[in-house]
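Because discrete structure vocabularies remain unfamiliar, we reproduce here a specimen of the format, pairing a chain with its fold in token form:
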Amino acid sequence: MAGATTKTVHDIFQSMEYGPAASSSSGSAQAWLNHHSRALGLFIDGKFVRPEDRQTLSLRDSRGDLVCHTVCAVEADISQCISSALQGFDVWSGLSCYQRSKVLLRLASTLGQHGQSVTELCDLCQASFSSSALVRMLQYYSSWAQLRDRLIAHWKPLGLVAVVTSDDCTLYPLMLKVLPALAMGNAVIIVPGQCTAAPMLLLSQLFMAAGIPAGALSVLTGSDISLAADVAINPNISYVTYSGNKQDGMKLCKATAGMGVPVSVTPTIGATCPIIIFESADINSAVDDVIETAFKKKKETHWVLCVQESVLNNVVDRLQLRIAGLKCVPLPSCEARLLVDAAVQEAQHKGATLMPSCAVPSSGPQYPPTVLCGVAPSFQCVVTPSPGPLLPLMTFRSNTEAVTLGNHSPHGQAASIWTEDLTLALETAKSLSVGSVWVNSKPLSDPCLPFSGHKDSGTCTDGGQEGLYHFLQLTSTSAVRRTSPLAMDYTNFGTDAPQVIIPDETGTAKSYLQFVAGKVCKSESGCSVAVYPQGSGSVLCYCPDGGRKDVRNAVEAAIKVQPGWMKKSPSARAQSIQSLAKGLEGKRREIATSISSQTGLPLEQADTEVELSIARLSEWAAYCDKVCGRTLPMPQSGSGLSIPEALGVVGAVLPEKQPLHSMVTMLGAAIATGNAIIMVPSEDCPLPALTFIQVLQSSDLPAGLVNVITGRRDQLTKALANHSVIKAIWYWGSDEGCQYLQHTCTSPLKTLRLFGKDGDRDWSHASVLEEMWRNAIQWKSVWIPTA
């Protein structure tokens, strides 16, 4: 053809330019929307329902054209939905594992016919997702549905599960919660954000065509996150799980505080993640994937590029070559453009240089892909990234400095490492506090990869076998105890005045000390509280009245010693726990006496509890080197690793019943998995824990690994909740305390295990070990491609 130019392979490799983009079509999606008159209702009891006199929302595409209208559900719709879901759960959970698996596989087959419609609708709604990814998820979770009773014995479905997403969340994280919940036999009520509402309604119709019982899957749409709280308040909801931006997740946690329903949060939007390029990397491949990751996909996460100084010039030259010619990226609004301009100006003012892909438009909601060279961790574009296509570039000298830069962010979602040195890659992956690590690869998502949000990036695990347990409960446990929210003044919680102490007339009451940083000591306040036998009687003893400063001292000691303890070999940790069991054996008589005098139990029963506690510590010692990660069956060529890691510092407010046995169970679970722990004994029953301090003193545990702080429970609960370093809290206490923790532990996010004052259990049951072990760890997945 006249005027046509033909480029050789050599020319393309010299310029490294992209080929023409494939043309897109939305005909199938438009036809489905037109069939429903672009007015989508709710999906209840296996069919579309469009009630009259409901508020509606308009969903528009990236060009501003109308996609559809969705209905805003009200209380009557929620009641109808839950009534249908209860019936659907009875039918769905009553099916055999094989029958549930067949339904999911049938849906995968159905997507072969209608997958194009799903993909096109996701593109229209800016919730980009491919049908092939959904088919892979269905195949993976259908096999788990088939094998649940065989490979996950002694567990049962929760019941009704609410899955919630924010308006800016895509379909993948939503389905990563919906499918495992269904595979385990639960009924699911979906409360999608605006982007995923229409695609989820289409998928619900396909689920029904595949044979899922009516009511087992429902969709309620609304205007904001308050709809999810209205769903959660229903006593039939057993669990609420959320994906999306952190702001809506915090609102959901606060709105559901005091309802007695567990809520987990996965902030998939807005996290800052590092890309680390070492001098031993394949620079060409690394830079190509950096451009693809940072600028070519929908920006759910913010990336920071960290480059070793010795190859900085090489990387910058290739970035300049690859970024040239990239078109401007549309921004959500003109206000977002102002944020981008402010971040760029601040970076330039502090000495950064720009590497834009093309000329910067004078105005409008768009901006060119830009690399900011020479930034520091304190720059605004790193600390609070703007929504625009900006890629900050920082440098490091040593491997240790690379890990420090990678862990600088408060988020712990993911990281990408580039190096041909496998030893360096694995050591760096282990040292980074993130849930997913990709080695010499751009971000890869697969349902078999478990992901736990580290630091401020979530309180649950998604994906893999590990993610299934959020939708299961042990057959030996009772249903969730629902409560009604209390009218609370959160600022005054835990500020009650200490009780007045009247001197013991007999003068026989002993004064005990608490255990902080490996030493027995008084409380920082210098005050004490009186301890009485259960029931009534004269003063049994006095214990320190600990508070915020005591918790601070304990945390400072714990964070110094916990990383070294975590790095110890499992056999070394087992020996230390076994020595703790021997120390308890040596103090057996004295501790049994303390249990008897505190609880009023006969000495023989108290001695039995000590015997069970010794056995429990021995069990935890045996657990140390018996439970570990695994290699994942990835569909791609390469190796996927699933690695359990310690949470960090755990706070535990202990129960009153079986005070010694429950304490050593939680103590053993924490330190066997590499954590440090701060224990708050029951306010009414602290004497066994105070006596156990003698065992801790004579043990070879590092100073600060285990801390025991006594005093008023609410005051110490408040101190634990407001300390930013503590990652998880296990709480036995009042309904007020549970509500306060749910409302407060959102920034940073803490993993909560709330049992309430009546949350008693049989601590001798074997299933307690597995449950507590899972409460004490978080999961990391590492993907290493081989081709």
In short: The radius of gyration is 28 Å. The longest strand covers residues 237-245. Residues 97-124 form the longest helix (28 residues).
